[in-house]
Structure formats: C-alpha cells, structure tokens
Amino acid sequence: MERPPFLRAQLGGLPRPFWALWGGTLVNRLGTMVMPFTGVYLTQSRGLSVVAAGLVMGVFGAGSLVSQVVAGVLTDRIGRRATLSGGMLATSAAMLALGYSTSLPAILASMFVLGLVIDVYRPASNALVADLVSPEERPRAYGLLFWGINLGYSVGMTAGGWLAGIGFIWLFWIDALSGVVFAVLVWRAVPETRPEGSHSAGGFLMVLRDRVMVGFTLVALGNALVYSQTMTMLPVAMTKVVKLTAGQFGTAMALNGVLIVLVQPLASGWLGRRDPARTLATGLAVMGVGFAMTAYVTTTLGLTVTIAVWTAGEIMTAGIAGAVVARLAPPELRGRYAGLFGFAWSLAAVLAPLLGGPLLELGSRALWFTIGGVGFAAAIGMLLLGPAIRRR
After folding, report:
1. CB within 8 A of 390, min separation 6: which ones?
2. Which end of the chain is less crowded, N or C, counting CB atoms within 10 A of the terminal residue's CB?
3. Based on the domain organization, do 166 and 224 belong to the same domain?
4. How far apart are the first and last CA of the chain?
C-alpha cells in the first residue's frame, strides 16, 4: 500500500538501519520506568531518608558525568554498534542490581554504575545517525529520534505509575528487558559504521582544540540548564510556592508531551531546511521567554500557557543540535564530539538543582528571570557561532 504524500515527505528517504535504531530507541523509552520514580522508590520501598536519597542521586550524577566522555571514546575506538549494544546490556544488568539492592552501600554502588552506563548509547546513537544519514536529512532524522523518545517516554511514564502501585520490581524488570531488546535489535539490524582509523584518532584533546565545538558545547550547556528546570525546580515551585496540587501540575505538564508528539513530526522537515544556527537560536530564545513567563504563574491555566510557549521552543531545537554536532565533527571523531555534547547535558543535570534551589529561595522572579536570561544568552551565543558553523 502506497504511503500518502505527507508520510512520504516525513518518513521517506531515510535508510532502513536508521529505522531499526529508531525502533530500538522507542522500545527502550517505552520501558523507561525506573528513573522518573527513583526518588519515590528510594524513600518508600527502601526506606531511605530524603538526605540519603539525595546522596544516592548525587552518586548517579557523578557516574553520568564520566559516562559521556568514556562513551564517546568507546564509540570511536570499538565501534558504534558494539558501544550501543554493550551499554544497553550493562544498563539492564545495573537496573536489576539496583532493584534487588537493599543496603545503602549496595544501592550507592548500583546507582553509580547505572549513572555510568545508562546513557552510553547516546554518543553511539548520534554517531550512527551521522554515519547513516545524508547531511541534508540529518535534522529530520535527529528530530524523529527525539519524537520517538518522547512518544515512548509518555507511555512509559503512564504505565510506570500504574505498575509502581503493584510492585516496584516490575519497573526494574521491564526497564531491563527493553534494554536487552534495544541491544539485540541494533546488533542484528544496524551495520557497524565506524570509519577506518577511528581507533587511533587521538583523545578528547583533539575535540577540545575545536573552538567552535567548545563554543557550541557552552550553548548546549545553557540549553540544558534551562530545560533541566522542568525536572528540578519547576515541580517544586509550582507545588510549594504557587500551591498547585500534584495532579494539577501533572495535567499541565502532560501538554508538553502531547504537543511534541502531535506537532514535532509535522515541523521537523520544514525546520530541517532552515539555517541551523538561526533556527536553534530562535528556539532557545522562545524557551527563555516561556520560562521567564513562569515568574507570573498563579494558576494551572497560567502554567499551561508557559508550557505551551517553551515547548514550542523545544520543538524548534529538536534535531538541530545533533545535526550541528555531526556537521562539526570529522567522521573519525563523531563519537567524541557527541560525547562532549552529552557531557554538557550531564553537567546541567548536576548543576540545575544546585543553582535553582538558592535562586528559588530568593523568590520566583529571581529564579525564572535568571533561567530566561540563560536561554537568551545561549541564543546570542548560537547566533555568534552561526558564521563559523556555516563555513563548516
């Protein structure tokens, strides 16, 4: 049966191995149930204090910081397919180890290993897309991956909340099984694409000598610091300061996933044909506006409006950042470049609560105007990098 013209425009022209990678990513995100409920699991199921649970999450963050650098090197040295599949199998083992850990030392060890391996697949996945897809189609391909991640995550979150009521161990097993499926699917259906000579391409110093990439990594850090507030300070501010209920906050936040699932596939092709630096800068500025508006939120409706604004910015940036990294990176260093980009997001996950907490103590306006300012600073940085990126 022939696809309608719209579907051909959105889905056509991408190689079959890309769709195997996309399908594996979707399955993995459908099974991502543990991390959103980790705090609840640690305090309720394992009886840890809030302080101890914070320590465990900090250890996870430390592992995550190391993860992206190591994964970038492995992607270039041993190959994209081996790194991705191996990382997912290691994640599945770490998930089960955490699920059956009962003492604090065992939980800390499991969480550090989980932080180390859970995102190993990201540099490998980014490098695979760059290797498999033509430069013209990369923004659309990265955008479709982003869409699949959000589609799977929304369903996984809903199912995870239901399964947590039955027993947390179910979450660990489903998460582990989805990782195994992802690993097997990539190993069987995605060819190794690592260029010859990548194993001897040098270390991270070669990436750090690329001033355009370092500048872009700082832009990515600003983007990540803004977005990370959705998982750190936004829930706290809305429930503790604005006094919304958890149900009201959850209902408003659901709009983010709905808009991405419905709008992002429609926009990815058109956005991919625009200048990447200007498109990304515009998206970052729109996100900055949305988060700055949060300072004036007093109702669920007001929160919904701000979410719609920053989600529009998020949709504009989806897929563009990955395409920029692929454009900047020599083929033999794509894993390392993607690893440095991923490091910015891991660092932001650690810094966001450390910066956001004290700012929220000063007041909502101090927090949200600062976050909006970070978004605008990242947008300006992106515009300044535009000419250098276009020359590549």
Report:
1. 275, 277
2. N
3. no
4. 41
